[in-house]
Amino acid sequence: MPDPQQPWYAQGPPHQPVPGNPYASEGGPQGFGPPTVPTPPPRHRFGRGPVVAAVVALVLVVVAGGAYALSDHWRDEPAKPVAKESPGPSGSASPSGSPAAGGPELSHIPTTKEVAAARKPGESAAWIVDDKTDLPKQINKVHDLWIVGDTAVQALHRKVTAYRLSDGAEVWNVTLPSSVCETPANPTPDGRVVVFHHERPDNNRGNQCNQMRMIDLKTGEQGWRKELDEPGDRDNTFIVNSAISGDTLAVARNMVAITYRMDDGSKLYEIPRENKNKCVPDDVAGGVARLLVSSDCMIAIDRSKNYGQVRELDPRSGKVLWRYRMKTGWSFGSLISMDPVVFTTYNNEDSASDWRITVLDPGGKHRTTFDARDKGFEQCAGDAGGNIQPCRGSGVGKGLIMLGATDQVGAYDLKTGKFLWGVKSDELRRLYPLRAEDGKSMLIYEGATSSRPGRTFVMGPRGAGTEKDVVKHPVATAPYEYEMSMGHTAYVDGRLVLTSTIVSGDEKRKPWREARILSFAPAAP
Protein backbone atom coordinates (compact mmCIF):
# COMPACT_ATOMS: atom_id res chain seq x y z
CA MET A 1 0.00 0.00 0.00
CA PRO A 2 1.48 3.38 -0.90
CA ASP A 3 2.57 5.84 1.76
CA PRO A 4 -0.47 8.04 2.50
CA GLN A 5 1.85 11.04 2.73
CA GLN A 6 3.22 10.79 -0.80
CA PRO A 7 1.71 13.06 -3.45
CA TRP A 8 -1.34 11.68 -5.24
CA TYR A 9 0.58 11.54 -8.52
CA ALA A 10 3.38 9.45 -6.99
CA GLN A 11 5.07 7.20 -9.50
CA GLY A 12 3.80 3.64 -9.95
CA PRO A 13 4.87 0.80 -12.24
CA PRO A 14 5.63 1.89 -15.82
CA HIS A 15 3.00 1.38 -18.47
CA GLN A 16 3.99 -1.38 -20.88
CA PRO A 17 3.34 -1.17 -24.62
CA VAL A 18 0.79 -3.55 -26.05
CA PRO A 19 2.65 -6.54 -27.55
CA GLY A 20 1.93 -7.53 -31.12
CA ASN A 21 0.43 -4.16 -32.01
CA PRO A 22 -0.51 -4.30 -35.71
CA TYR A 23 -0.44 -0.50 -35.89
CA ALA A 24 3.18 -0.15 -34.83
CA SER A 25 4.07 0.22 -38.49
CA GLU A 26 2.01 1.11 -41.51
CA GLY A 27 0.43 -1.82 -43.32
CA GLY A 28 0.30 -4.23 -40.37
CA PRO A 29 -1.73 -7.40 -40.68
CA GLN A 30 -4.89 -5.79 -39.29
CA GLY A 31 -4.28 -2.27 -40.61
CA PHE A 32 -7.89 -1.10 -40.77
CA GLY A 33 -7.36 2.54 -39.86
CA PRO A 34 -5.38 5.70 -40.43
CA PRO A 35 -1.58 5.44 -40.13
CA THR A 36 -0.23 5.51 -36.62
CA VAL A 37 1.37 8.59 -35.10
CA PRO A 38 2.30 9.45 -31.51
CA THR A 39 -0.78 10.56 -29.63
CA PRO A 40 -1.04 14.38 -29.58
CA PRO A 41 -2.21 15.92 -26.32
CA PRO A 42 -5.97 16.52 -26.52
CA ARG A 43 -6.81 20.18 -26.14
CA HIS A 44 -8.88 21.26 -23.17
CA ARG A 45 -12.47 22.25 -23.70
CA PHE A 46 -11.82 25.88 -22.78
CA GLY A 47 -8.15 25.98 -23.77
CA ARG A 48 -7.08 27.02 -20.29
CA GLY A 49 -4.53 25.82 -17.83
CA PRO A 50 -1.42 23.73 -18.53
CA VAL A 51 -1.49 19.97 -18.40
CA VAL A 52 -0.10 18.93 -15.05
CA ALA A 53 3.66 18.82 -15.46
CA ALA A 54 4.19 15.58 -13.62
CA VAL A 55 2.79 13.16 -16.19
CA VAL A 56 4.04 9.93 -14.69
CA ALA A 57 3.22 6.24 -14.65
CA LEU A 58 -0.20 4.98 -13.72
CA VAL A 59 -0.49 5.71 -10.04
CA LEU A 60 -2.65 5.81 -7.04
CA VAL A 61 -2.42 7.18 -3.53
CA VAL A 62 -4.62 7.59 -0.51
CA VAL A 63 -5.32 11.12 0.70
CA ALA A 64 -7.83 12.42 3.23
CA GLY A 65 -11.52 12.11 2.34
CA GLY A 66 -13.56 13.47 -0.67
CA ALA A 67 -15.19 12.87 -4.06
CA TYR A 68 -15.39 14.28 -7.61
CA ALA A 69 -16.67 13.95 -11.23
CA LEU A 70 -15.79 14.56 -14.90
CA SER A 71 -17.44 16.14 -17.92
CA ASP A 72 -17.32 17.31 -21.42
CA HIS A 73 -19.55 18.99 -24.01
CA TRP A 74 -17.66 19.58 -27.26
CA ARG A 75 -14.26 18.24 -28.15
CA ASP A 76 -11.51 19.59 -30.34
CA GLU A 77 -10.52 17.11 -33.00
CA PRO A 78 -7.06 15.61 -32.38
CA ALA A 79 -4.48 16.50 -34.99
CA LYS A 80 -3.90 13.61 -37.39
CA PRO A 81 -2.01 12.89 -40.62
CA VAL A 82 -3.66 12.50 -43.99
CA ALA A 83 -5.02 8.99 -44.11
CA LYS A 84 -4.04 6.47 -46.74
CA GLU A 85 -5.98 3.54 -48.04
CA SER A 86 -5.42 0.67 -45.62
CA PRO A 87 -5.66 -3.01 -46.50
CA GLY A 88 -8.21 -5.22 -44.83
CA PRO A 89 -7.23 -8.32 -42.87
CA SER A 90 -6.66 -10.32 -46.05
CA GLY A 91 -4.32 -7.68 -47.45
CA SER A 92 -6.69 -6.80 -50.27
CA ALA A 93 -7.49 -3.13 -50.63
CA SER A 94 -11.21 -2.60 -50.45
CA PRO A 95 -11.87 0.79 -48.85
CA SER A 96 -15.41 1.79 -48.03
CA GLY A 97 -16.82 4.98 -49.50
CA SER A 98 -15.58 6.98 -52.43
CA PRO A 99 -12.45 9.12 -52.68
CA ALA A 100 -12.70 12.82 -51.98
CA ALA A 101 -12.35 14.96 -55.09
CA GLY A 102 -8.66 15.52 -55.71
CA GLY A 103 -7.77 13.90 -52.38
CA PRO A 104 -6.73 10.51 -50.98
CA GLU A 105 -9.15 7.62 -50.74
CA LEU A 106 -11.13 7.24 -47.56
CA SER A 107 -9.90 4.66 -45.07
CA HIS A 108 -11.53 1.30 -44.69
CA ILE A 109 -13.66 0.83 -41.59
CA PRO A 110 -13.66 -2.83 -40.61
CA THR A 111 -16.80 -4.85 -40.20
CA THR A 112 -17.66 -6.46 -36.88
CA LYS A 113 -16.75 -9.79 -38.48
CA GLU A 114 -13.30 -8.47 -39.42
CA VAL A 115 -12.78 -7.13 -35.90
CA ALA A 116 -13.72 -10.53 -34.47
CA ALA A 117 -11.26 -12.27 -36.79
CA ALA A 118 -8.48 -9.95 -35.62
CA ARG A 119 -9.24 -10.37 -31.91
CA LYS A 120 -6.35 -11.65 -29.83
CA PRO A 121 -6.60 -13.96 -26.80
CA GLY A 122 -8.02 -12.18 -23.76
CA GLU A 123 -9.42 -9.24 -25.73
CA SER A 124 -13.07 -8.30 -25.41
CA ALA A 125 -15.73 -8.97 -27.96
CA ALA A 126 -16.53 -5.84 -29.96
CA TRP A 127 -18.87 -4.54 -32.59
CA ILE A 128 -18.47 -1.50 -34.79
CA VAL A 129 -20.92 0.49 -36.92
CA ASP A 130 -19.98 2.14 -40.21
CA ASP A 131 -22.70 4.70 -40.93
CA LYS A 132 -22.52 5.78 -44.58
CA THR A 133 -25.02 8.62 -44.17
CA ASP A 134 -24.20 11.52 -46.48
CA LEU A 135 -23.43 14.39 -44.10
CA PRO A 136 -23.17 18.14 -44.81
CA LYS A 137 -19.61 19.32 -45.39
CA GLN A 138 -19.28 20.78 -41.91
CA ILE A 139 -18.79 19.67 -38.33
CA ASN A 140 -21.95 17.75 -37.43
CA LYS A 141 -23.06 17.27 -33.85
CA VAL A 142 -23.71 13.73 -32.63
CA HIS A 143 -26.51 14.10 -30.11
CA ASP A 144 -27.21 12.45 -26.76
CA LEU A 145 -26.76 8.69 -26.42
CA TRP A 146 -29.88 6.95 -25.05
CA ILE A 147 -29.92 3.36 -23.77
CA VAL A 148 -33.47 2.00 -24.00
CA GLY A 149 -34.09 -1.69 -23.39
CA ASP A 150 -31.62 -3.65 -25.49
CA THR A 151 -30.79 -0.77 -27.86
CA ALA A 152 -28.53 2.27 -28.06
CA VAL A 153 -30.25 5.19 -29.80
CA GLN A 154 -28.79 8.43 -31.13
CA ALA A 155 -29.51 11.27 -33.54
CA LEU A 156 -27.12 12.51 -36.24
CA HIS A 157 -28.04 15.04 -38.91
CA ARG A 158 -31.55 14.06 -40.13
CA LYS A 159 -31.68 10.54 -38.75
CA VAL A 160 -32.44 8.92 -35.40
CA THR A 161 -31.13 5.34 -35.29
CA ALA A 162 -31.40 2.44 -32.84
CA TYR A 163 -28.63 -0.18 -32.66
CA ARG A 164 -28.96 -3.53 -30.89
CA LEU A 165 -26.64 -3.67 -27.89
CA SER A 166 -25.70 -7.31 -28.39
CA ASP A 167 -24.26 -6.97 -31.90
CA GLY A 168 -24.70 -3.39 -33.21
CA ALA A 169 -27.29 -4.35 -35.81
CA GLU A 170 -29.61 -1.53 -36.83
CA VAL A 171 -33.06 -2.12 -35.34
CA TRP A 172 -34.87 0.91 -36.76
CA ASN A 173 -34.27 4.43 -38.00
CA VAL A 174 -36.37 7.55 -38.43
CA THR A 175 -35.48 10.07 -41.14
CA LEU A 176 -36.53 13.65 -40.45
CA PRO A 177 -37.15 16.44 -42.99
CA SER A 178 -34.36 18.60 -41.54
CA SER A 179 -31.36 18.23 -39.25
CA VAL A 180 -31.71 17.61 -35.53
CA CYS A 181 -30.63 20.62 -33.49
CA GLU A 182 -31.44 19.62 -29.90
CA THR A 183 -32.16 16.52 -27.84
CA PRO A 184 -32.81 16.07 -24.10
CA ALA A 185 -30.24 14.08 -22.14
CA ASN A 186 -32.78 11.50 -20.99
CA PRO A 187 -36.02 9.98 -22.29
CA THR A 188 -39.15 9.33 -20.24
CA PRO A 189 -39.13 6.23 -17.99
CA ASP A 190 -41.03 4.34 -20.70
CA GLY A 191 -38.60 5.33 -23.45
CA ARG A 192 -40.20 8.29 -25.23
CA VAL A 193 -38.30 11.40 -26.26
CA VAL A 194 -38.83 14.67 -28.14
CA VAL A 195 -36.24 15.67 -30.72
CA PHE A 196 -35.97 19.22 -32.06
CA HIS A 197 -35.12 19.78 -35.70
CA HIS A 198 -34.71 22.80 -37.92
CA GLU A 199 -37.56 24.62 -39.62
CA ARG A 200 -36.05 24.19 -43.09
CA PRO A 201 -33.98 21.42 -44.73
CA ASP A 202 -31.15 23.81 -45.67
CA ASN A 203 -28.15 24.79 -43.57
CA ASN A 204 -28.37 28.50 -44.25
CA ARG A 205 -28.32 31.15 -41.56
CA GLY A 206 -31.62 32.00 -39.92
CA ASN A 207 -32.83 28.40 -39.86
CA GLN A 208 -34.86 28.16 -36.66
CA CYS A 209 -34.60 25.21 -34.22
CA ASN A 210 -38.35 25.12 -33.60
CA GLN A 211 -39.81 21.80 -34.80
CA MET A 212 -40.70 19.27 -32.08
CA ARG A 213 -41.34 15.59 -32.75
CA MET A 214 -42.05 12.81 -30.26
CA ILE A 215 -40.46 9.41 -30.94
CA ASP A 216 -40.92 6.14 -29.07
CA LEU A 217 -37.36 4.90 -28.71
CA LYS A 218 -38.47 1.30 -28.14
CA THR A 219 -40.11 1.00 -31.57
CA GLY A 220 -39.14 4.05 -33.64
CA GLU A 221 -42.79 5.04 -33.96
CA GLN A 222 -43.43 8.76 -34.26
CA GLY A 223 -46.06 10.50 -32.19
CA TRP A 224 -47.16 14.12 -31.97
CA ARG A 225 -45.30 16.91 -33.70
CA LYS A 226 -45.67 20.64 -33.39
CA GLU A 227 -43.84 23.93 -33.74
CA LEU A 228 -42.18 25.35 -30.68
CA ASP A 229 -44.53 28.22 -29.86
CA GLU A 230 -43.17 29.72 -26.69
CA PRO A 231 -43.99 33.36 -26.03
CA GLY A 232 -41.38 35.83 -27.14
CA ASP A 233 -39.54 36.51 -30.37
CA ARG A 234 -40.27 33.66 -32.76
CA ASP A 235 -37.35 34.68 -34.96
CA ASN A 236 -34.81 34.02 -32.23
CA THR A 237 -35.15 30.27 -31.72
CA PHE A 238 -31.57 29.28 -32.48
CA ILE A 239 -30.28 27.97 -29.15
CA VAL A 240 -32.76 25.62 -27.50
CA ASN A 241 -32.20 23.54 -24.34
CA SER A 242 -34.57 20.79 -23.29
CA ALA A 243 -35.05 18.24 -20.52
CA ILE A 244 -37.55 15.51 -19.66
CA SER A 245 -38.70 14.91 -16.07
CA GLY A 246 -41.18 12.08 -15.76
CA ASP A 247 -43.93 12.91 -18.25
CA THR A 248 -42.98 16.60 -18.52
CA LEU A 249 -40.89 18.20 -21.26
CA ALA A 250 -39.21 21.50 -20.32
CA VAL A 251 -37.81 23.82 -22.98
CA ALA A 252 -35.65 26.92 -22.46
CA ARG A 253 -34.69 29.41 -25.15
CA ASN A 254 -34.04 33.15 -25.39
CA MET A 255 -34.66 33.83 -21.68
CA VAL A 256 -38.03 32.04 -21.78
CA ALA A 257 -38.90 28.55 -20.49
CA ILE A 258 -42.10 26.55 -20.83
CA THR A 259 -43.27 22.98 -20.20
CA TYR A 260 -45.31 20.49 -22.24
CA ARG A 261 -47.05 17.18 -21.60
CA MET A 262 -45.15 14.34 -23.18
CA ASP A 263 -48.41 12.48 -23.82
CA ASP A 264 -49.82 14.93 -26.37
CA GLY A 265 -47.53 17.99 -26.58
CA SER A 266 -50.04 20.30 -24.89
CA LYS A 267 -48.70 23.18 -22.82
CA LEU A 268 -48.48 22.87 -19.07
CA TYR A 269 -47.10 26.13 -17.68
CA GLU A 270 -44.54 28.84 -18.29
CA ILE A 271 -41.57 28.89 -15.93
CA PRO A 272 -41.64 32.43 -14.50
CA ARG A 273 -38.90 34.98 -14.27
CA GLU A 274 -38.14 36.20 -10.77
CA ASN A 275 -36.80 39.24 -8.91
CA LYS A 276 -38.77 41.76 -10.99
CA ASN A 277 -37.86 39.92 -14.22
CA LYS A 278 -34.14 40.24 -13.51
CA CYS A 279 -33.69 36.49 -12.95
CA VAL A 280 -34.41 34.81 -16.28
CA PRO A 281 -34.44 31.01 -16.89
CA ASP A 282 -31.67 29.97 -19.25
CA ASP A 283 -31.47 26.16 -19.02
CA VAL A 284 -33.27 23.08 -17.71
CA ALA A 285 -32.25 19.64 -16.46
CA GLY A 286 -34.20 16.43 -15.83
CA GLY A 287 -33.82 12.68 -16.02
CA VAL A 288 -35.40 11.65 -12.74
CA ALA A 289 -38.71 12.67 -11.17
CA ARG A 290 -37.43 16.20 -10.62
CA LEU A 291 -36.94 19.30 -12.74
CA LEU A 292 -34.13 21.82 -12.25
CA VAL A 293 -34.09 25.28 -13.81
CA SER A 294 -30.98 27.49 -13.84
CA SER A 295 -31.30 31.25 -14.15
CA ASP A 296 -29.11 34.26 -14.78
CA CYS A 297 -29.89 37.15 -12.46
CA MET A 298 -28.83 40.22 -14.40
CA ILE A 299 -28.80 42.96 -11.81
CA ALA A 300 -26.32 45.33 -13.45
CA ILE A 301 -24.14 45.85 -16.51
CA ASP A 302 -21.19 45.02 -14.28
CA ARG A 303 -21.01 41.19 -14.35
CA SER A 304 -19.42 41.15 -10.90
CA LYS A 305 -22.77 42.28 -9.47
CA ASN A 306 -24.81 39.54 -11.17
CA TYR A 307 -25.37 36.02 -9.91
CA GLY A 308 -26.81 32.64 -10.82
CA GLN A 309 -29.72 30.75 -9.32
CA VAL A 310 -31.12 27.22 -9.52
CA ARG A 311 -34.65 26.09 -8.63
CA GLU A 312 -36.29 22.72 -8.29
CA LEU A 313 -39.85 22.70 -9.63
CA ASP A 314 -42.57 20.11 -9.32
CA PRO A 315 -42.62 18.86 -12.93
CA ARG A 316 -46.41 18.66 -13.20
CA SER A 317 -47.50 21.79 -11.35
CA GLY A 318 -44.51 24.11 -11.64
CA LYS A 319 -44.49 24.78 -7.89
CA VAL A 320 -41.07 25.90 -6.64
CA LEU A 321 -39.83 23.30 -4.16
CA TRP A 322 -36.62 25.09 -3.29
CA ARG A 323 -34.36 27.83 -4.59
CA TYR A 324 -30.58 28.16 -4.26
CA ARG A 325 -28.78 31.40 -5.06
CA MET A 326 -25.08 31.56 -5.90
CA LYS A 327 -23.04 34.28 -4.29
CA THR A 328 -22.83 37.64 -6.06
CA GLY A 329 -20.48 37.51 -9.05
CA TRP A 330 -20.89 33.74 -9.57
CA SER A 331 -23.03 31.75 -12.02
CA PHE A 332 -24.25 28.19 -12.57
CA GLY A 333 -21.85 26.12 -14.69
CA SER A 334 -22.59 22.43 -15.40
CA LEU A 335 -24.73 19.84 -13.65
CA ILE A 336 -22.77 16.83 -12.39
CA SER A 337 -25.65 15.03 -10.68
CA MET A 338 -29.44 15.42 -10.40
CA ASP A 339 -29.81 13.30 -7.28
CA PRO A 340 -28.11 14.48 -5.17
CA VAL A 341 -27.78 17.90 -6.81
CA VAL A 342 -24.09 18.53 -7.57
CA PHE A 343 -22.94 21.25 -9.97
CA THR A 344 -20.12 23.61 -10.84
CA THR A 345 -20.16 27.38 -10.47
CA TYR A 346 -17.84 29.94 -12.02
CA ASN A 347 -16.66 33.48 -11.37
CA ASN A 348 -18.30 35.86 -13.86
CA GLU A 349 -15.08 37.83 -14.20
CA ASP A 350 -12.93 34.76 -14.85
CA SER A 351 -15.30 32.16 -16.25
CA ALA A 352 -12.50 30.04 -17.73
CA SER A 353 -10.36 29.27 -14.71
CA ASP A 354 -12.04 30.34 -11.45
CA TRP A 355 -14.63 27.68 -10.61
CA ARG A 356 -15.88 25.46 -7.77
CA ILE A 357 -18.04 22.38 -7.15
CA THR A 358 -21.15 22.75 -4.97
CA VAL A 359 -23.23 20.02 -3.31
CA LEU A 360 -26.78 20.59 -2.05
CA ASP A 361 -28.81 18.46 0.34
CA PRO A 362 -32.21 17.01 -0.70
CA GLY A 363 -33.96 20.21 0.38
CA GLY A 364 -31.76 22.48 -1.71
CA LYS A 365 -29.67 23.67 1.23
CA HIS A 366 -25.93 24.15 0.85
CA ARG A 367 -23.93 21.14 1.99
CA THR A 368 -20.40 21.87 0.79
CA THR A 369 -18.38 23.73 -1.83
CA PHE A 370 -14.87 22.68 -2.76
CA ASP A 371 -12.07 23.54 -5.18
CA ALA A 372 -10.74 20.75 -7.42
CA ARG A 373 -8.26 22.93 -9.30
CA ASP A 374 -5.32 22.12 -7.05
CA LYS A 375 -5.47 18.50 -8.26
CA GLY A 376 -5.51 19.58 -11.91
CA PHE A 377 -9.14 18.83 -12.77
CA GLU A 378 -10.75 21.03 -15.41
CA GLN A 379 -13.78 19.07 -16.61
CA CYS A 380 -17.20 20.73 -16.30
CA ALA A 381 -15.40 23.92 -15.31
CA GLY A 382 -16.35 27.43 -16.28
CA ASP A 383 -19.16 28.53 -18.57
CA ALA A 384 -20.52 25.40 -20.28
CA GLY A 385 -21.48 27.36 -23.38
CA GLY A 386 -24.31 24.89 -24.06
CA ASN A 387 -26.60 22.54 -22.20
CA ILE A 388 -25.90 22.32 -18.48
CA GLN A 389 -26.73 18.60 -18.71
CA PRO A 390 -25.05 16.21 -19.07
CA CYS A 391 -21.61 16.94 -17.65
CA ARG A 392 -20.08 13.92 -19.40
CA GLY A 393 -17.38 11.85 -17.79
CA SER A 394 -18.45 12.82 -14.30
CA GLY A 395 -20.33 10.75 -11.80
CA VAL A 396 -21.82 10.65 -8.32
CA GLY A 397 -22.54 7.43 -6.50
CA LYS A 398 -22.11 5.58 -3.21
CA GLY A 399 -20.92 8.71 -1.42
CA LEU A 400 -18.35 9.67 -4.07
CA ILE A 401 -18.07 12.51 -6.55
CA MET A 402 -15.91 11.20 -9.40
CA LEU A 403 -13.91 13.38 -11.77
CA GLY A 404 -11.70 12.52 -14.72
CA ALA A 405 -9.40 14.53 -16.97
CA THR A 406 -6.80 14.34 -19.71
CA ASP A 407 -4.61 11.92 -17.79
CA GLN A 408 -6.13 11.45 -14.35
CA VAL A 409 -9.21 10.50 -12.37
CA GLY A 410 -10.08 11.21 -8.75
CA ALA A 411 -12.67 10.76 -6.03
CA TYR A 412 -14.02 13.29 -3.51
CA ASP A 413 -16.25 12.72 -0.52
CA LEU A 414 -19.83 13.75 -1.29
CA LYS A 415 -20.54 15.06 2.21
CA THR A 416 -17.33 16.91 2.97
CA GLY A 417 -15.81 17.69 -0.42
CA LYS A 418 -12.47 16.29 0.77
CA PHE A 419 -10.19 14.62 -1.74
CA LEU A 420 -9.95 10.85 -1.20
CA TRP A 421 -7.66 9.39 -3.84
CA GLY A 422 -6.63 9.70 -7.45
CA VAL A 423 -4.81 7.91 -10.22
CA LYS A 424 -2.66 9.36 -12.99
CA SER A 425 -1.62 7.90 -16.36
CA ASP A 426 1.83 7.99 -17.92
CA GLU A 427 0.22 8.94 -21.25
CA LEU A 428 -2.19 11.68 -22.23
CA ARG A 429 -5.13 9.30 -22.16
CA ARG A 430 -8.57 10.44 -21.12
CA LEU A 431 -9.75 8.76 -17.91
CA TYR A 432 -13.52 8.59 -17.47
CA PRO A 433 -15.14 7.42 -14.23
CA LEU A 434 -18.10 5.26 -15.23
CA ARG A 435 -19.58 4.45 -11.83
CA ALA A 436 -18.74 3.90 -8.15
CA GLU A 437 -18.44 0.23 -7.32
CA ASP A 438 -18.55 -0.02 -3.54
CA GLY A 439 -17.97 3.47 -2.17
CA LYS A 440 -14.22 2.97 -2.23
CA SER A 441 -13.42 1.99 -5.81
CA MET A 442 -14.45 3.18 -9.25
CA LEU A 443 -15.07 1.61 -12.62
CA ILE A 444 -12.91 3.64 -15.02
CA TYR A 445 -12.65 3.89 -18.79
CA GLU A 446 -9.17 4.71 -20.08
CA GLY A 447 -9.33 6.11 -23.61
CA ALA A 448 -7.29 4.78 -26.52
CA THR A 449 -4.33 6.33 -28.27
CA SER A 450 -4.05 6.18 -32.05
CA SER A 451 -2.19 2.86 -31.76
CA ARG A 452 -3.07 1.43 -28.36
CA PRO A 453 -6.56 0.38 -27.31
CA GLY A 454 -8.34 1.69 -24.26
CA ARG A 455 -9.52 -0.45 -21.39
CA THR A 456 -12.19 -0.60 -18.70
CA PHE A 457 -10.90 -1.35 -15.21
CA VAL A 458 -11.69 -1.11 -11.51
CA MET A 459 -9.41 0.73 -9.12
CA GLY A 460 -9.68 1.98 -5.57
CA PRO A 461 -7.48 3.46 -2.87
CA ARG A 462 -5.31 0.40 -2.35
CA GLY A 463 -2.50 1.53 -4.60
CA ALA A 464 -1.16 1.54 -8.12
CA GLY A 465 -0.77 -1.84 -9.72
CA THR A 466 -3.86 -3.28 -8.03
CA GLU A 467 -6.23 -2.30 -10.82
CA LYS A 468 -8.36 -5.08 -12.27
CA ASP A 469 -9.26 -5.09 -15.96
CA VAL A 470 -12.95 -5.66 -16.56
CA VAL A 471 -12.93 -5.20 -20.33
CA LYS A 472 -9.70 -5.49 -22.35
CA HIS A 473 -10.39 -3.59 -25.55
CA PRO A 474 -9.11 -5.07 -28.84
CA VAL A 475 -6.10 -3.62 -30.63
CA ALA A 476 -7.90 -3.82 -33.98
CA THR A 477 -10.32 -1.01 -33.09
CA ALA A 478 -7.81 1.34 -31.41
CA PRO A 479 -7.78 4.04 -34.14
CA TYR A 480 -11.57 4.25 -34.16
CA GLU A 481 -11.76 4.27 -30.39
CA TYR A 482 -9.21 7.08 -30.39
CA GLU A 483 -11.41 9.08 -32.77
CA MET A 484 -14.13 8.97 -30.11
CA SER A 485 -11.95 10.57 -27.43
CA MET A 486 -14.02 12.74 -25.09
CA GLY A 487 -17.20 11.43 -26.67
CA HIS A 488 -20.43 9.93 -25.37
CA THR A 489 -20.06 6.89 -23.12
CA ALA A 490 -22.58 4.45 -21.66
CA TYR A 491 -21.94 1.41 -19.51
CA VAL A 492 -24.78 -1.09 -19.19
CA ASP A 493 -24.76 -4.74 -18.07
CA GLY A 494 -20.99 -5.04 -18.48
CA ARG A 495 -20.98 -3.46 -21.94
CA LEU A 496 -19.29 -0.16 -22.82
CA VAL A 497 -20.75 1.88 -25.69
CA LEU A 498 -18.78 4.76 -27.27
CA THR A 499 -19.61 7.39 -29.87
CA SER A 500 -18.12 10.71 -30.90
CA THR A 501 -19.77 14.03 -30.08
CA ILE A 502 -18.99 15.47 -33.50
CA VAL A 503 -18.20 14.04 -36.94
CA SER A 504 -16.88 15.83 -39.98
CA GLY A 505 -18.73 15.67 -43.28
CA ASP A 506 -15.95 17.48 -45.12
CA GLU A 507 -13.82 14.82 -46.84
CA LYS A 508 -11.23 17.38 -47.92
CA ARG A 509 -10.74 18.66 -44.39
CA LYS A 510 -10.68 15.19 -42.91
CA PRO A 511 -10.10 12.58 -45.63
CA TRP A 512 -10.67 9.51 -43.47
CA ARG A 513 -14.07 8.33 -42.40
CA GLU A 514 -15.06 7.87 -38.79
CA ALA A 515 -16.77 4.88 -37.28
CA ARG A 516 -20.26 5.68 -36.08
CA ILE A 517 -20.33 3.70 -32.82
CA LEU A 518 -18.18 1.18 -30.94
CA SER A 519 -19.04 -1.26 -28.20
CA PHE A 520 -17.02 -3.64 -26.03
CA ALA A 521 -18.06 -6.47 -23.71
CA PRO A 522 -16.18 -9.32 -22.05
CA ALA A 523 -15.93 -12.29 -24.39
CA ALA A 524 -17.98 -15.35 -23.50
CA PRO A 525 -15.86 -18.09 -21.88
Automatic annotation (TrEMBL):
Per the record's keyword annotation, is Transmembrane included, yes or no? Answer: yes
Q: Which domain of life is it from?
A: Bacteria
* Membrane-spanning segments: 51-70
Annotated Pfam families: PQQ_2
Annotated Low complexity bias: 86-104
| Positions of the Pyrrolo-quinoline quinone repeat domain | 149-272
Q: Does the keyword Ribonucleoprotein apply?
A: no
Annotated region Disordered: the residues are 1-45, 78-107
Sorted alphabetically, the keyword list is:
Membrane, Transmembrane, Transmembrane helix
Q: Cross-referenced PANTHER family, in alphabetical order?
A: CELL SURFACE PROTEIN (PTHR34512), OUTER MEMBRANE PROTEIN ASSEMBLY FACTOR BAMB (PTHR34512:SF30)
Name assigned to this protein = PQQ-binding-like beta-propeller repeat protein
Q: Which organism is it from?
A: Streptomyces finlayi
From the broadest rank down, the organism's phylogenetic lineage runs: Bacteria, Bacillati, Actinomycetota, Actinomycetes, Kitasatosporales
